[in-house]
Design a protein that fits this description.
Elements (H helix, E strand, L loop, with lengths): L3 H12 L21 E5 L2 E4 L4 E4 L14 H11 L10 H13 L5 E5 L2 H16 L3 E5 L12 E2 L9 E2 L6 H4 L2 E4 L4 H11 L3 E6 L13 H14 L2 E6 L10 H6 L5 E4 L10 E5 L1 H4 L18 H13 L5 H22 L5 E5 L2 E5 L8 H5 L3 H13 L2 E2 L8 E2 L6 H16 L3
Parallel strand pairs: 3-15, 5-8, 5-9, 9-10, 10-11
Antiparallel strand pairs: 1-2, 2-3, 4-12, 6-7, 11-12, 13-14, 14-16
Helix pairs in contact: 2-10, 3-10, 6-7, 11-14
The chain binds ligand KE4.
The site of ligand KE4 has 19 residues, from helix 4.
Length: 427
């Protein structure tokens, strides 16, 4: 008897490319049949066959207060009863703009959009309009959504111009993007010395979460800020994942680095499509209808998404919220590491705030190259064994994981116990 998951996947593949509406969901990196979820509550999700999992993906970060938090559900219901959208300004958009600018001091002005991709795509256009320059710099392994200029991989050999990492991206567009090595301050310094006056913007994940989790080196963050200031390039911190995830002030507050522009998403939408970009007033005032840089969106500031975001952002301001979240993530990473090492398995893990990385490697990776040398097959085996045991990790060795305020120390202890059992039978 095939499971409901299998039936749904077989049917979905006939109508939806790969059976999914976003590639990572298809389990191609880990193998097997993707889970179709039917319900979430707190730290748990249930698949189409009614099996419960402790959830460490949380919709890729948004579910920081847990699934179906009553305050969030009620805010959405109340907002929906007033109207699902107007395509016109609402007071709630001003309310969330005021809250975002209060929580993130670098935000002098902010605009709401509907996805992280829109936020980063627009921040780059804005930086180009503000500086009058075309070149942008990103880092290998960082993901900033799927706009053409960001689907770019490092040029081969000495070529510092990027090459498309997706078909359909014209080489001419990719060539305007330079891809450097994350955490390589010296390499950044060298590139700026050659090309600094041509750089419109540098976009970076202040904690990388799309090549598994990579922690920034202090000298790398310092070089980013100092060089962008020196050469008049716009420093864009892509905090779509780290915003309100690593601390209430995001990674910029956690590490004390002030961006010129910042992009936000995930947590600030509480699971609904709300994202944003913002920063220096002199840059933001270049945006239509004030300035010449165009950007628009039918659903921007949608009142239901804003309601979910506001309710979530109110909850994360609770006393001790991030101390508790960080403690849960630390309990998990330290417990998994101890269990693996007890059984002589090359495994390590780390966390920053409420996000974590798991690596089948002797030491913590600090670069894209080091992440790529981790044992992906071992991760995939671990992923499926944990899934079987009722624990849902990110379905890729190159993604970060997330805890929520709904997870308890007992949930984490049960996760560690399941891993310990798997490691004890590890050949
Ligand atoms: P969206 O367009 O998917 O809302 O955001 C793109 C984005 C931008 N910046 C960062 C730092 C991000 O992590 C993301 C999206 N993250 C992935 C998870 N690694 C979303 C999951 C998916 O692609 O389905």
């Amino acid at each position: 008897m095939t499971s409901k998951n299998d039936q749904l996947f077989a049917s979905s593949q006939k109508l939806i490319p790969g059976g999914v509406n976003s590639p990572v969901r298809a389990f191609r990196s880990v193998g097997g049949t993707p889970l179709f979820f039917q319900r979430g509550q707190g730290a748990y999700v249930w698949d189409a066959d009614g099996k419960r999992y402790t959830d460490f993906v949380g919709s890729w970060g948004p579910m920081i207060v847990g699934h179906c938090h009553p305050d969030v559900v009620k805010a959405v219901q109340d907002a929906a009863a007033q109207g699902l959208g107007f395509g016109a300004p609402t007071a709630s958009e001003l309310e969330i703009a005021e809250l975002l600018c209060k929580l993130l001091p670098s935000l002098e002005m902010v605009r709401l959009v509907s996805s992280g991709t829109e936020a980063t795509m627009t921040a780059i256009r804005l930086a180009r309009g503000f500086t009058g320059r075309s070149r942008i710099v990103k880092f290998e392994g960082c993901y900033h959504g799927h706009s053409d200029g960001l689907l770019v991989k490092a040029g081969s050999g000495a070529l510092t111009f990027g090459q498309p990492s997706s078909s359909g991206v014209p080489a001419e567009i990719a060539a305007l993007t330079t891809v450097l090595d994350y955490n390589d301050a010296a390499g950044l310094e060298k590139y700026f010395a050659e090309m600094g006056n041509e750089i419109a913007a540098v976009i970076v994940e202040p904690v990388a979460g799309n090549m598994n989790l990579i922690v920034p080196k202090p000298e790398f963050l310092k070089a980013l800020r100092d060089l962008c200031t020196k050469y008049g390039a716009v420093l864009i911190l892509d905090e779509v994942m780290t915003g309100f995830r690593v601390s209430l002030q995001g990674a910029q507050g956690y590490y004390g680095i002030k961006p010129d522009l910042v992009t936000l998403g995930k947590v600030m939408g509480g699971g609904l499509p709300a994202a944003a970009f913002g920063g220096r007033r002199d840059i933001m005032q270049c945006l239509a209808p004030l300035g010449a840089v165009y950007q628009a969106g039918t659903l921007s500031g949608n009142p239901i998404a804003v309601a979910a975001g506001m309710a979530t952002l109110k909850l994360v301001q609770a006393e001790g919220f991030y101390e508790n979240l960080s403690a849960l993530a630390k309990q998990l990473t330290e417990g998994l590491t101890a269990a693996a090492q007890k059984h002589g398995i090359d495994f390590c893990a780390q966390s920053v705030g409420g996000m974590f990385g798991l690596y089948f490697s002797k030491s913590l990776p600090t670069s894209y190259a080091e992440v790529m040398s981790c044992d992906k097959e071992a991760f995939n085996r671990f992923f499926h064994a944990m899934l079987e045991a009722g624990f849902y990790l990110a379905p890729s060795a190159f993604e970060a994981g997330f805890v929520s305020a709904a997870h308890t120390p007992a949930d984490i202890a049960a996760t560690i116990a399941a891993a310990d059992k798997i490691f004890s039978a590890w050949k």
